[in-house]
Protein 1
Amino acid sequence: MSADRWRIIDDIFHEALSKPLRERDSFLSRACAEDPSLRKEVEALISSYEKAETFLEAPVPVSAKFIGMQVEAYEVQASIGSGGMGDVYRATDTRLNRPVAIKFLSRELGNDAVRRFEQEARMASALNHPHIVVVHEVGKFQDSPYLVTEFVDGGTLRDWAAAAKPSWQQAVELLSGVADALACAHEAGILHRDIKPENILVTKSGYAKLADFGLAKLVSREQGDLTGTLTAGRTQPGLIMGTLSYMSPEQAAGKPLDARSDIFSFGVVLYELLAGRRPFSGETDLEVLQKIIHGMPEPLSEGIPQPVRAIVEKALKKDPSERYPSMRDMVVDLRKLVRQSAESAPVKPTSSLRVWKWLGAAAVLAAFAVLLWKFWPSASPPQIRSIAVLPLQNLSRDVDQDFFSDGTTEALISKLSQIHSLGVVSRTSMMRYKGTSKSTADIGRELGVDALVEGAVQRSGGRVRITAQLIRASTDRHLWANEYERDAADVLKLEDEVAQAIAHEIQAQITPEEATLLNSARKIKPEAYEEYLLGQYHLWRSEPDSGRNAVEHFQRAIDLEPDYAAAWADLSISRTVKIGPQQREEALNAATKAIEIDPNLAEGHAALGSIYFINDWDWTGADKELQRAMQLNPNSLVNCGCYAAFLLVMGRLDQAYAIISHAAELDPTSSTIQSVYAIALHRGRRYEEAIRHAERAIELDPKNTNAYLQLVVNEVRTGRFQDALAILDRPDMKMSYLQAWVYALMGRHADALKLLENYRRERAPSKNNMAITYFALGDREHGFEWLTKAFDEREALVPWTKFTPEFDNVRSDPRFKALVARLKIPD
């Protein structure tokens, strides 16, 4: 349909609605006298409007009215569909470069329609669940109220069922997420009252989301049965609201409703998806109504397992007391079915023909390999592209000198990591193998590297000796070995020499700039180097005094060697990361001094960029310095971590993922990096992936509290509240603010407020965390009071505010926009 044709239909439709019913027929006869098809299209639109119970009810000719327009930050691109109450378009959010859906309410509709439209926004935005369509914003454009939601790219559940022709397992698995979303709504005191396939949207990747809360009702939880109206306004007694074929018997009879009505409607949808037909149908609405109230549906086929049939039958009981007492109980049964189905899925046997084909292909390949081996004996072994430096042994036999051997190991790793063409496993992963009895072959397989460096270091009589050998991981073959010795004052040159020898042996490609870096060492007082290594030792530790101890040792190194650039850089990082903003000026002076001494020192630029990022909110300066650090040494975990954090704050998620993924390759056994990965995925709303990385972090380090925290947050985002609470019951996870937040999202407001008060009394609370919890409670006034304080005091978490999912429910509030504007984060 052309835009001009639609405008004619739209104008006649709205004028017809303004006419009294007795005048409407004659008006349409005049307006459409020369075009009978035009009248049919207008009458279809009017009929759809009059039957509609929710916004965007029935499909009618699509609208072109707003296509091409700019609605605030949204560029309208295409029509998705129209209904009696308005139109839906696909648009692009130009601020965040993401697709969205915009629903426009027809201007001529009455106050009741506007009230229900606003209620849809209020109800949906009050819920925060991965299986509920996210509401981004509400507004008004050309006198038409509009609602902006996330864009779901795969159509409705009905579309999905027609295209996918799902098995019962696929149907149950898909709808179990929707059931969990409904349970979340019920626990927050919200009834949906219009569960049907058209209100369940499915992404192209097969992820279902519950939509359209236009008929939702906010009810009291104190009464226990979810029947008392609070704020949504009373429905007229006896008035039937909803879509007839999916109503519960009590809903069809106009009786008071509770959560069990939604359970019945959900059962109807599940039945239809499994059977391919509705459980209650008829030739007239009255016949359908009679069957819903009194009739029994045909049993599901024997091809559907009995436990599935039992769940559907229980949901469709006429008497609400015989159904599931809560949606959460039904979710438990559905997920149990999904798990059992996955565990019992048979392995598909391979046919004998395929086996013989495979064996034949294998024989050909084997013969070809023999020929290659016989006639091409000069084939060279694969090039070494990745390497790991095992902790050097301390040959002094003095455990108090371990810091020196560990520091030398770190120095070699750092030197080699400056070679961009070489992948070098980081220090933290390698220190796990200190004193290990594992073979180099096993370590190589665990780390996924081509080669390992093994060796020892010894200090004696003012001399330092390093022995090193290179081993190919796949064959455990020793490729090279050598011994290097210098005066202690030349220890930095000694480290450069060993690194260069290893690089030469593996034929690593070294740029002129990298060659300069590998030859930049100078003499240094042994005492200064010892203080520097002690500073690094404390910088990597997590004890309460580690920051202060690191600062003291780096400062002593500088006192002994005022031009020691690396010590200046690490002193700055220690003050910024370990101590905090109160030492901002000292940290800035140290970073500036480091770059002044050595402009090509990556750690100096990382230190300066961290100050701009963490303390100054100078995003341009931070980006410039952190990028320079990455250019100089992309294999430094410090550089990767600082820049990835910056990118997450900027909302540049794809770049952040790439850097964190690289860091995970450098440090495959680092629990910390897996935690950071979970944080990044959480920012991208990729909650299931975030859970996997948090679990991996815990597997690597069961004491990683931050990993448990990320697990809690993402379990909540996927609706698994009980799993989250179980984690918070751990003795080391007594975080009252976090438990309060979970309770708030579950609808247990009294419990949440009690814990929040305890958190406030126990210690100086994070104002940012207080705000998040109040927003989860629906208390925006207190939430913005705390968030404003957090901004005023420049709390460390504040820069993360703009893209954090926990603020999605207030993102459209002008007060939130005003606070975020203070960050001046570029779009």
Protein 2
Amino acid sequence: MEERTERFVPVSLEDEMKRSYLDYAMSVIIGRALPDAFDGLKPVHRRILWAMWESNTTWDKPYKKSARIVGDVIGKYHPHGDAAVYDALVRMAQDFTMRYPLIDGQGNFGSVDGDPPAAMRYTEVRLEKLSKELLEELEKNTVPFTSNYDNTLKEPVYLPARFPGLLVNGSAGIAVGMATNVPPHNFREVADALIYMIDNPEATVDELMNFIKGPDFPTGAYIIGKEGIREAYSTGKGLITIRAKAFIEKTKSGKENIVISEIPYQVSKAKIIEKIGELMRGKGLEGVSEIRDESDRDGIRVVIELKKDTSPQVILNYLYKHTALQTTFGIIFLAVTDNQPKLFTLQELLQHFLLRRKEIVRRRLTFDKEKAEARVHILQGLIICINNIEKVVEIIKKSKNVEEASQSLIKNFNLTKIQAQAILDMQLSRLTNLEREKIIKEEEELRKEIERLKEILQDEKLLMNLIKEELSKLKEVYGDERRTEILEHEEKEIRLEDTIPEEDYVIIYTSSGYVKRTPLSAYRYQGRGGKGKIGMKVKEEDEVAEIFIASSHSYLLLLTDKGRLYWLKVLDIPDVGTAGRGKHISNLIKLKEDENIKSVVSVRDLDAEDSYLLMITKKGFIKKTHISAFKNPRSTGTTAIGIDSDDSLLSCIKTDGKMDIIVGTANGIVLRFNEKDVRDMGRSARGVRAMRLKGNDEIIGMESVSEEHKYLFTVTEKGYGKKTLVEEYRVQRRGGMGIINLRVTNKTGKVCGLTSISDYDDIIIATNNGKVIKIKTETIRPMGRYAQGVRLISLEEGDKVASFTAISNQ
């Protein structure tokens, strides 16, 4: 018995795993997941279109069952699961998925609600007319073919597309270690960009964006901003924000409804409605009473009914932030070229299309020229035959068989074998004079066509002009208007304040650092001299340091006694009710250990042109700085004013740079001067002297004066106050001694603050013990400068006025 020998080859497990995984990865990348950079199709989509073209399932022929097409594709070219093939076929028929569908479907092909299509045995398909522009030139030797999986048939490596399918219809796919996500674009815009690039091969992204504005989704909606589009076109990757299109509709009853008419690409309408319903049940949308889906074949219409006195824009902003009505789309221009994945820029994609399209057109023209030359060759033989018809007939009659007749014709008239065979195949009817003239005319026309084709093939400029003409014709036939609108100046991010109705809040800050906000509406009016109501629970060792009014949509600039500035949103401050203590400021901003908040300024716009911060210290130094210097504060704060070691910041107000300023002291002295006396300084400057003080007097406040603010309102620490016409305070020079504002006595106590008010403004006063009173200033008669004022609030023993603020009712 012959001994069997076995041979073992040692293989490194690491090397084998690496080789096998790379083979698998490349198979997925090239053969399944990524589209071709030229025709924009993955292998499965290309095979579906090719199988339908082969079976003559075109736009002008009857529909065929989808199952039949899927069977052809699986059996001939794509040996994978039927579900995967059918899903790919369905996608090409969905007008909400493809910007320009390639397959015309009949039956249920799914919906924008996320409903699945009917089974393939029920649906029918045929090619859309647009698919002709991808497939029509296949018969003219324009693209290379390769063998199918079992080497029995041939299939095209890519289709001879007349338009860049990757840009026009987009593509998405996840491969091994890479992914692609190309959004669809407008056909007309892409064609215009290609025509421009033919004339300007070095066109920049900005030049091309004059034509291609951005992605154009089949579901419409808005794209917010152009930065992400430009980045994607320049680098191959970018992130864009898509927002649903909605409008406000008034009902007959006077209520307002939100109507959603377009939704972001690849977002399920049903899931959006489901999410809105969840928010309504969870009390996140208390202003919404009902949601209805009134969509039909004419388009999307989702109606959101609002309750009375609800702001539609606030609700809409809330929905943008918490549902898929606003979403992001990550653009990745990754595609396959020459069997390699590559990340493309917009210019590279267009250049790649034009380069390959030029080669396809050249091969098509060469094919047409060779076909015309072959036809001319036959026609020349037919003309010789007609001119010598008697002799030709005689030769054929004398010949024993077809082969002998062919050889005799070749010998007698110097013909080729092809010409001889054409003569033998010619019908007798072609011997008439009319047919003779037709043959001669056809030969002349073909010669002219051959010359035209040769001229184009020899001149690249003519070749590119031909491509331009073809693109122009396609644009006229298939081009349409944009569906997706680009909002260049809209905010991408929906801020928290955009989702909350604008409302004025009372902000209370204590000496130990606790802060809270309470809606202004929570405080009722009381008569002058009332006791007030609890505005904040404070501990025995704590007291109210400051009270002021700010909008829910405002920013707060918090200035410390050390001259540092911090930035905070009003909505970051907790709303804990009128009696709540609030949250410690250290939980909201990073104050240094030895810092205390001394002044808070409420602002809406940190880029305002005529807007300044005017700061004053206890020692009487004043400084003015443009507000834009503080628009990018750090989390650890930024320097607002230079402070001497024996001084501290007292107050800060916002001005327009041209106002009159009134500075007041604890002993009832004020100085009025024009703000122009204080020049604009940098952030670290100390400032200049505002007012000279007598004895142990100290500055307690600063206020600006404007035309609408006719009165100066002064409050003392024992609850007395008065309003005095501003005109009683003459304008002096900065740095003076000032004049009397209020006669300070033991009964009134020292002045604790002042503010300017108009005829109908209100005043909110807070005491150290947390009592708060709201008073109409119109109930207080104007008084002279020497008056001591009237009682504004009745204080408990040991309590004092801590702070007060004016509320404008204009």
Protein 3
Amino acid sequence: MVASLLVTLLVATAADPALAQLAAPITPPVAPSATNVAYPPAASGDSVVLLELVVAPDGTVSDAKVLEGVEPFSEQARRAVLTWQFVPAMRGTTPIAARIRARVEFHQELPPAAAATAPPRPQPAAPEARAEVTEAPLDVTVRGQRREIGQTTLSAADAREMPGAFGDPFRAIEALPAVTPIVSGLPYFSIRGAPPNDNGYYLDGIRIPFLFHVGIGEAVVHPALIDHVDFFPSAAPAAYGDAAGAIIAGQTRAPATKTHGEANLRLFDAGALAETTFGEGRGSVLIAGRYGYPGPILSALTDNVKLGYWDYQARVTWRLDDRNTLSVFAFGSHDYLGTALVRNGEPGPILEQLASDFHRIDLRYDHALGGGTLRIATTLGRDAQGGAGLNENAVPSTVFDLSVASRIELDDKLSSSLRLRAGVSGHYDRYSLDEPVADASQAPVINSADPPPTNVGAAAHADLVWRLSPRVEIVPGLRGALVASWRNNDSANIHARTTVPALDPRVSARVTITPRVAWLATAALAHQYPALRLGAVPGLFLTVPGFPLGDAQLQRALQLSQGIEVALPADITLTANGFLSAWSGLTDVSSLCIQIMPPTTPPPTGMGDPQPPPYTCPGQQPVHGYAYGGELLVRRPLSKRLAGWVSYTLSRSIRQQHFITLDGSDALATVRSDYDRTHVLNAVVAYDLGRHWRMGSRVVFYSGAPYSDLAGNVPVPPYNGHRGPPFFRLDVRLEKRWPLGKDRSIALIIEGQNVTLTREATPLGLDCMGTMTPQGGTNQCTEGRIGPLTIPSIGVDAVF
């Protein structure tokens, strides 16, 4: 959406009155020729901000104070003016400091997609300011994005200041209400009760299998490329589909108009981004990437784990003319995790437990319409996701996916009060399975997924952003999809073909009760294919989206929420929500995989090491469930000198769940889900100490997870009738930044997650796992403890 901005510099002599007595004439600062201010991504409507600026003798803005204005406009304007470069005020021929005022007006007009396609409007040069001049008007074009109802947006600036997020906008979502970590420090989240595999992840509208690297948990995209992250805990816009949980959508920065870059070096990884223009500014080229080497940190904690990761991004854009743009965006990621199997207390060799890769190439064409934009895009993809074998004689299994997806997206303004957003999409996924075994006597690990399927799907969506009045906005939407899947294996006489339709209506509304108070409501029905879990390692939630376990079973979710937004004094905002989610056909792949050996089973005999029986993952069987609760978020922008952030979630998640009994049969019970945590609290405080020093800390607290008593390693009733102890951790961050001129700086950042070294009690860390002996049997299983999972970081960050 394009917003127009009128910036009027109210220039006045800012020298001390005594200096006016001097004979030398005083010349006020000259405004910059281009004063672009981006429309805040989390904003809607119009606003005016009045600021007082201190222009240093070198022409930089050394300080900016908001005199009038409300969030998020006031902070967006304040941050923008700090980047301006003036011709400084002069006393004769000597530069001096000056104090001036700037007035910034924000107007919401055009759709967000136009920002990526429309060329910058030429900026008229500001006239030279003189002592007698009081105003120098300047027209500037800026671009903004309408904030969706029920959406929370995290800007890159907020994420950089979040302790424990390591500057990562995706990682910072952990501090939002509705988000429950499965295990502290690992980026696998249950959101409003939905299991992690039901969350949908997008980057620039491209569906990706996951957002985070394994272990350290960094995002699979360099943070300098991300402009903001949109978080929809439920009832996302109709453009997003095939997700029965939350939607987390990252939006990359618009192509640069000048050369710039960023580089960082930390204890566990290094990354860089560089972008430049060509063709007289009509084109741009961007390259970014990151390489992780967490070995030194892991070796200080354990010798039984090997971990590594890397990612890359590349983008080329070319503006054909004022309305048409072509671009190519390629990105990918790799992860590796190996662990040692412990026998008789002695660790064995490192065995591959996880090897995961995905790659995407997105070709897109953008056309600017009179009141919106049209995008046509095709995405090519290749995924390879591998899980562990069950013992040191088995070779890990890998699922491959070759995919092609196309989409057409329209966003157009039909009238001053009505906007249409619509599109069609299609996808083709061809899965293959590589599952070798040591000898013919061993059964396949993923035999339920053999033969792998081929999926073809098509979808159409539309919604209307309708302003019924200046205070009432309603967004009805509908998404329809049709998915066909077939699996053929002539030798096994398996011939399955399924066509499954899905119809997902949704509606959201915003009513502005007063200028500072708004009421929000959302409702949606969502469908998703089941997801296949890979590997039998407790705590690993690697899944293959769209890989069906059954032939005709879809997950279905009903999502409801209501809330209020309140703008408080001192730039503080308060958001409170109540929610209800209900599922049917749910594939709860975060449930434990149980290794079955009933007490009556005789010890294995024969030559060589015994082969333990296979794992059973009862959570992969479809179940029903529901979750409800309340959420509270109170925050003051983290870029403020004194910033605060408190998020709290009170919730309950109930689930049907399959349990294996002592005799090996199946038991179905309605219980608190494995990741039900009654209370989840995040509290953040950050303070600017001056002289470019900034420090902050974050407290994380949540209730313990439910668990069952065990007989051997088999749960016994009452299932999930107990709850572990609560968990607490403290994250800290300290930054010192040295400016090196305009748009250049270098910083030293010291950061730590879980500096309290707190261990977490969790059913995912059952002590009995991996305790098989040559004589057979297992030890008594108890709820285990994980950790302490802690991440220390000392790094250098450079911006140029």
Protein 4
Amino acid sequence: MMWRLFHSLRGRLIALVLLGAVPGLGAILYTAETQRQRDAVAAQAEAMRTVQFVAGTQRELFAETQRLLQVLAQLPAVHEGSAASCSALLTHLHKQDPAPRYSSFFAVRPDGDVFCSSAPLTRRINAADQAYYRRVLATRAFAVGDYQIGRITGRAIIVLAQPVLDAAGAVRAVVGAGIDLAWLNRLAAEARLPAGSTLTLVDHAGTVLARNPDGEKWIGRSLAGTPQLAAMHAQHDGTLEIAGLDGVRRLYAFTAIYESHQEGHAHLSIGIPAAAVFAEADRTRRRHLLTFALAVLLMLAAAWAGGHVFVLRQVNALLGAVQRLSAGDLGARAGLSAGVSEIGRLAQAFNRMAAALEQRTRDNEEKERRIVRLNRVYATLSRINSAIIRLRGRTELLQETCRIAVEEGRFRLAWIGHLEPGSRELAPAQWYGSETDALRSLRLPLDAIAPGAAEPIGALLRAGRALVCNDIARAPPPEREAALACGARACALLPLHAAGNVVGALNLYAAEPDFFDVEEVKLLEELAADISLGLEYIEKDDKLHRLSYYDPLTDLPNRLLFGDRLHQALSRAPRYRDRHVAVLMLDVARLKEINSLHGHHAGDALLRDVARRLRALLRPGDTAARFGSATFGILLVDVAEASDVATVAGRMAEALQAPVTLNGEELFVTARLGIAVSPRDGDEAEMLIRHAEAAVRLPPAEAGGAFHFYTAEIDQQAMERLELEKALRRALERRELSLHYQPVVDLQTLEVVGAEALMRWQHPVLGAVSPARFIPVAEETGLIVPLGEWALETALAQSRHWQARGLPVTVAVNLSVKQLQQADFAERLAGLLEAAGPTRLALEITESLLMKAPERYVALLNALRTQGLSIYIDDFGTGYSSLTYLKRLPVDTLKIDISFVRDIARDPEDAAIVKAIVALAHSLGMKAIAEGVETAEQFSALRALSVDAAQGFLFSPAVPAEAFEALGRRPFHPLGS
């Protein structure tokens, strides 16, 4: 019976109670002693943690102070040594200290004098004998002083100092901060030490620097000869139990807080009274002894009487639940009421474990499903990105996207619709999947309200927002019917972008409801973004291809595509006898004039109209291309006779004669054509183009009509022009060029007040070459730049010479557009002016040139004006001046064009125009000079209109410098004046 009882749980409980009762007293006593030891160890550990925390706080304060001093050392108020600004800065900084942690901030000069401080300086203080000061001077680096009583504040502090270095690395000053040791009181309060505990800071010699509590009583006392100081000198960190100087036995923990260089370490210690440490252990021992006997009796009774009621029945129920759970029943529970007993808590723990296991299993299954789905989307994303890189066609990319979405993404169906501006419905354009017949007639209304939203589908798509419907029954009727017919139960509509605009939408159907979660939608949005990026790349590639082969203004093929088509036509021509290929070059005249008078938008509209007319005249297979600003090329293939080409050229010339209406105004176009026919004029593409260009450049007087066929004589003229260019390139080296000067006469005093420098060329073989012949060649070839610079340099030297000889006339030099377009023109001209010395120079710039880019020339002319130059506007009245820009331009003189002077004595309109120009010039503080004055009548009319000065053959043609000097020293007497 006893044996069976022992093997039962109830018997084992009783046996355990008895076994526990025998050694109970010893266990209680042993536990009490162990508790005392643990309390001692815990108190020492807690004291050590507290003292190390306080020490760490001090070290962190040191590091923070070092960074602060490094910033202060860079500030001008400290670096430049201004006592007033420095003290104001340090006082402000001290007020910002929230703790406060610092007693003061101060700065010291290299001789040791404190010249500024956050605390008032009531006397002269020298820090040359301080340890921190000597260390900063010795190391030129951050230094920490000893704990001391501050000379400025009279409080216990430790000084931290940072050198202020000059550019050479020498110490310019020392900036420091005194850390107030009163922080110990705050840290002691925060540590919440037991009553009677102490927090003490001593220096390396054992002198008390700070103590909490009773700091005033203990500061300055020495611990020399005490076991506590001996232990501190023996090791940096440690604990011991001794009686302090006040006779109270405490458990002490100490740590070295900072090394004071060669003198040793300062230490921080915490002492906790032994009585407070062991109080709880003593009370526990007495309580255990008193209750021991009663506890044993109660345990025996509980073990016997409650073994079955309170233990066995619950254990059996718990065991049954464990067995069901181990068999795989995740819903198994103990079925015991919650309680505070061990078995009740064990039952609760078991139930929580079983519930957690069941939930974790469900979560893992859900995670596995989610991972599978996300991996599916990632695979789809990867494959579509590969397709974006591989494919270059928009349709191919969208079709491949739908296929990959279905095959890789396991979607039921995928379709993409194009979203055109102003469209009211979205229809599938590309799709993939099973049972797609329902999509062929699908039209998704964009004004339908999206499920779960307050806005229409179209508005949401154009705003770039994805639409998700996890229950297809809530979708708009057209899509709902199509989706259900395809076996779909959820869908997502994702906008596609190109060039910042929504251009379409990708619709993905899933076979199960609630298919699209937040993570999958996020990945699908990335997928749509990648597809959009691919569409943008394709669109940009198409644009680049278009820009490479087509003119963006007229949408005609460019020269490159024209050459390719011409090459192909020439390669096919030998297969067909008696058939020819013709190249026509068409040049539109007066384009620059139209741009100047009506703006570039008018010129662009004119070119587009010319392109439209040319297209209308061409057969299929022929090509019209734009070669340059006003030049078009026409390719005619399969030509039977040259007369057929002449017929086409005549039709083109006739078609272009019709006026173009722009902004209600009719503009008339004149065009010339040059023609080259293969194989008569060449059998290579570049040769035919070159010969046609040579024919179109033939002067109108020689061409004899609107078009001209290429001849060998045209090549001869081109060769002569080339020879003229070669000779012009050597003209400067051979000193064949010179400047002649035409006088400018004041119309009131009749004295010479200026001269216009005009270039002349005397060739050893050709003789005197007209400027009308060589200046255009110089402009076309860029030679005008060195020629213009030579003219400026020569005119400056001549002006300087005349001033020295008492003839202070202003010399005007004409500038070319190519000179002004040079980025360094102003700097190069400044160099010429500096080399020439004081002169009187004017620069003449045509009105049409200024109006091409007035904003640019305002800045340039201002730069030239600051160099002492005068600015003239030449040929004024023939361009299209803006009065807004004219008043901003730094112009001195307007030169009235000869076209208004020629008939001024007979034509009232010319006289009115000249009068208006003079009034405009005078109102803007400018002068007016008339050009081309040849008769006394012109002179009288100009003088009556208050024109300031004039030049022309009436006074003198352009003459060499020596002859001009003689003219400039006498007044003129025009005939009839």
